[in-house]
Every structure is written in structure tokens, then in C-alpha cells.
Amino acid sequence: NFSKYWIPYIHGVVTFEGIKDNYVKDGLDPKNFHKINWCFNPNTQDLKEKPKKDLLVSHVGNINSHPYRIEQFNKLKSLGIDINQFFGVNYEEAKQGWARSKYNLCFTMNSLNTHREPKGRVAEIPNFGVLFTENFSGLDNYYNEDEIVVFNSPEDLVEKINYFEQNPKELEKIFKKGKQALWGRNTVYHEWSKILPQIDED
HSE (CB half, 13 Å, CA atoms) of 13? Predict the structure, then answer.
């Protein structure tokens, strides 16, 4: 809603979540809109020493401004799943949380509860464990079906957790494939090598 005020002063936009039509409507030249995927930085986002997996299910991120997430947490609790919440922590603590957790969750509904969108967690969690995520448009640009686990509801998530508790080797296979995909296709180096030539051909 505010882009119309600053678009006259910029050359272009590089965005993770922005919608092209909205920027164009506010005056941006369509050729100067660049959509980038969330991406992993091996230099800052990796964790040298991996702790033991002593947590079952965890979520890293804000909940106060996300009523949808609170609703999902409450439903999961009623189904017997208590989520370890990492909220208001620094990034090193966030990485520790992912590394300690067997099942790391990503909820993709936006804070206004109007649509699903890509979250940065999709380019973070697979370095530490299997990404358990809700769907969103463009998820297949990040991972293949056998590299992550997608859930559609709290009930579906619980069913999948129970399944992998009985089949840990399958979970480990998904983790290895997901981590290979993260490092092999979804790093900052991969994304910026696509975007920079669009911005400046030289």
C-alpha cells in the first residue's frame, strides 16, 4: 500500500513476497520488477556443531501477530502435540532450535489471514532437519516432493509425524535429499546469479 510513495525514487524492486501487478499499478516499470526466492547463506546460516535431537516438534517465529498460527498450535495441542516455540530469540538460538528438533514446522498463511506466501524458513530448516510445511504458490520452485513434507491440516500433520516415528529411515532419506537441494539449488549464490544479470546485463 505504500509503494506508490517511494516508487518514483527507485530504479527497481527485488522482493521475496511482493506481487508484480501491485507494484506496476503503483508506477513501477514491469521490467524492473525482480522476484527472488528465499535463499540460504552457508556463511551465516550454517551451524558448525549440531546438538542432539532432544525436541520433538518446534516452530521458530512470531506468533503474537499471527492469529492463524495460534489457532493451529491450539489444534495441535488438542491432538496431543505440544510445540516448542522459539519466539523472540536471536538467530544463533533459532539455529539451535531447528537443530535440536526432529520436526520443524513452517506455517505459510500471512499475518492478515488472506493468502499463503513463501516464508524464509523454507531456505533455513532443511539444513538442520526435514522441512514440514504448509503449501504455497511456488513451493515447487524450491523443492521436489521427496525433499520435504507438506501437510494440509493439524490432523494431517499429526498423522505424518506418527508415520515417520514408525519409519525413521524414511525421514532420514528426506532430510538428506532436502539438505542436498538446499545447498545445491537454493543458496544466495544460486539466486543472485539469476537476479544480477536481469538488473545489469554487464
Answer: 23
